[in-house]
Amino acid sequence: MNVTRVGGLVLSCLALSLGQVPAATNNWTNDVGGIFNVVNNWEGGVAPGAGDTASFTNVANYTVTLSADAPLSESRVNAHESTVTFDLAGFTLSPTNAFLVGTVSGRVANAVVSNGVLLTRAMQVGAIGAEGSVTYYGVSNRISGAGGLNIGSGGTGVLTLADAQTMLYATGGGTHFVGQNAGSVGTVVVSNGLLNLTGFLTVGDAGRGTLALDGGTNIISSSVTIGSLAGSEGVVNMAGAGVSMVVTGGVNMGTSAGSMGYLNVSNGLLSIGGASAWGNAGRALVTLKGGSITGAFVASLPRGAGTGTLVMASADSSFYSGGVLAPYGAGGRSEVYLSNGYMNADSMQLGFGNSSYGYISVNNSTVDFRRTGGTALSIGGNYDGTTQNSTGLVVIADERAFRRVGHQITGTCIGTAVGVGSNS
């Protein structure tokens, strides 16, 4: 039964006489842990039901165990410098509106959820002035609301998918945030399992966001932005053996002036489905020290007056794309350093925008530009009939570079042009 409380008294008669049962906030009281559905573990001797909020504020480390499905309105964890463990025991915890950890300013709250199903419209970890963390073991978490995942909304938040049995589905579309507001710090760690988001993902909106992919399968059914607004910093790291991320849209980095985006691939496979801007008005750095970036996408490095840098530094690195525009936008600056690995692109234009600068250095790497009609490699100049005062520079340091240029080169190549043919 849903109740309201005044001074510890249970008042329900008035609500019942009006034909309404108001929602309650039910406070957990058992510092040593216990069964969720046992009334003696709750203030006032009433366990929360559908429409109620379950609140956990006890300063202690304890485990709350389900013995049946538990429908709620919200679940709030704000136990300062404590860890609340939810052992779902194969049952379903369903706070319909939200699962919230770290929402009280000045408090540090931690939650561990294991062995069951968690259903909610929204998850928020780390509100303004607060710190929160959530770790999943063997959990199937489904978030149904638009933009339902928000880690580090205004404070510091961490979400960890810790094992192969953990799956997180956010199906409501919208924009999900990791490090949303200025001053916030958000981190999502996928050690294993499945992360599947429908909608846009922004890592570092106005704050600092990190997506650390140490394993598992990760699917983003739209675009990813890494470093969005002025003052933001976004970081995506792919480091674990066998890790994969599929982005059906584009990957955009350093969107606004004063923003910074980092994409570091040292293992695994990143598949990109849409046009991508690596540095727009801000800065972007893409580093491959192993692993592969692949797709039919065109990478603008940058797309605007920002700065975009691509570094390949491992023999295990590979980069496949539909083309590279370095840069694409007036006043942009692009730098590509290939000190190892393999690049395969339809074409590359260095210095594509007015007053732009494009640079590529190739040393101990192999590059194939596969276009068979039109220009495969354009180096500065007036490639599209409108570009003015652009600069393109190619420095080739070994004979493996440019193994194949599919059709023709326009512009000027500065360096040792060993093995380069205009119609090879």
Key traits:
single chain, 424 residues, mainly beta, 35-stranded parallel beta sheet, six-stranded parallel beta sheet, 1 helix, 48% strand, disordered N terminus, disordered C terminus
Structure notes:
The structure is a single chain. With 424 residues, the chain is mainly beta. Helices cover 1% and strands 48% of the residues. It is built from 1 helix and 43 strands. It has a 35-stranded parallel beta sheet that branches. A hairpin with a 2-residue loop joins strand 1 and strand 2. The longest helix has 5 residues, at 13-17. The radius of gyration is 26 Å and the shape is elongated. The chain starts with a strand and ends in a 13-residue tail after the last strand. The model is unreliable at 1-21 and 411-424 (pLDDT under 50).
Secondary-structure blueprint:
Blueprint (H helix, E strand, L loop, with lengths): L3 E3 L2 E3 L1 H5 L7 E3 L6 E2 L17 E4 L5 E4 L4 E8 L4 E6 L4 E10 L6 E13 L2 E3 L5 E13 L5 E3 L4 E6 L5 E4 L4 E4 L6 E6 L3 E4 L2 E4 L4 E6 L3 E4 L3 E3 L6 E6 L5 E4 L3 E3 L6 E6 L3 E4 L3 E2 L5 E6 L3 E3 L3 E3 L6 E6 L5 E4 L1 E4 L6 E6 L3 E4 L2 E3 L6 E6 L3 E4 L7 E3 L11 E6 L7 E2 L3 E3 L13
Parallel strand pairs: 3-5, 4-6, 5-7, 6-8, 7-9, 8-10, 9-10, 9-11, 10-12, 11-13, 12-14, 12-15, 13-16, 14-17, 15-18, 16-19, 17-20, 18-21, 19-22, 20-23, 21-24, 22-25, 23-26, 24-27, 26-29, 27-30, 28-31, 29-32, 30-33, 31-34, 32-35, 33-36, 34-37, 35-38, 36-39, 37-40, 38-41, 39-42, 40-43
Antiparallel strand pairs: 1-2
